[in-house]
Amino acid sequence: TNKVGTCLIIADLINQGNLTWDTYVPAYSSLYEEGDGDITNSPLKDWYTVEDLVYNMPVSSDNTAWNILAVYYINHYGSHQEGLIRISGIQDIPQDLYQSNFACPSMLDGYLQKIVQNPTAYHKLSDYMLMSEPGLRFKQYVPEGMASKYGQYDDAYHDIGIYYEEGVPLYTLVLMSKNYSVSDEFMATLNYHLKIWTKYQQIKDADHSLE
Fold it and tell me: Quick count: other Cβ atoms within 10 Å of Cβ 23?
């Protein structure tokens, strides 16, 4: 899920003129990490464009792509974890969050709020999140309009997302779980019911406006 924060950091650097989508980022064999994604599961190149890396992080949760960009950020701009905390806008920061790749729900929702509030600046990221991981977790019963990014590490299962209807964001959702054997089904069902509830609230509000 922190891959979304990394994408936001990189998008900000592009919007500030410090990088472009075509900037080449060096890759090293020490940054390889097993998992899904074209970069992880193809012969490692010496360089990748920023767009190659940003695309692969949300769409296929590519760990090697994330490592490449995170190390590039550290080498040129400072602490990656502090960058994630800053981009989230979280206040009253627990000390644990300064450990690498740690996050909490409010931090993750901060990423989503940035995307919602700045759609032009982060349109590539929201588009890639809409493409990501079809049929999994939040997208199992809400396959259309859900821009999401799951996370998984050992027995921790997470998902975060924004639900759009006709291009309009209706809600954000963050769920973090640990050692919960039916978490995928729970996440899928929760998001489905939240979508239905949101639609009900829209209808109810429309009815009130006609009174």
Answer: 17
What Cα–Cα distance (Å) separates residue 105 from each residue in 68, 97, 162, 176, 209?
A: 25, 11, 14, 7, 34
CA atoms in the 13 A half-sphere facing the CB of 37? 24
The sign of the dihedral angle between the CA atoms of 141, 147, 152, 156 is negative
Task: Read off the pLDDT of residues 195-208 as tens digits, 9 standing for 90 and up.
Answer: 999 988 887 766 55
Residue 91, both tokens = 């206040």
Task: List Cβ neighbours of 172 (8 Å cut-off, separation of 6 or more).
Answer: 109, 112, 113, 116, 160, 161, 162, 163
* Residue 153, burial from CB neighbour count under 10 angstroms (0-12, 13-18, 19+): exposed
pLDDT tens, 114-147?
Answer: 999 999 999 999 999 999 989 999 999 999 999 9
112 φ/ψ angles, rounded to the nearest 5 degrees: -65, -40
pLDDT at 121 (0 to 100):
95
Strand segments, DSSP code E, in the chain are: 24-26, 47-49, 146-153, 156-165, 168-178
Say how many residues make up the chain: 211
Residue 68 gets which letter from DSSP? H
- pLDDT digits over 58-96, tens only? 999 999 999 999 999 999 999 999 999 999 999 888 888
Task: For residue 156, give every residue at least 6 positions away whose Cβ sits within 8 Å of its Cβ, in sequence order, or none.
Answer: 176, 177, 178
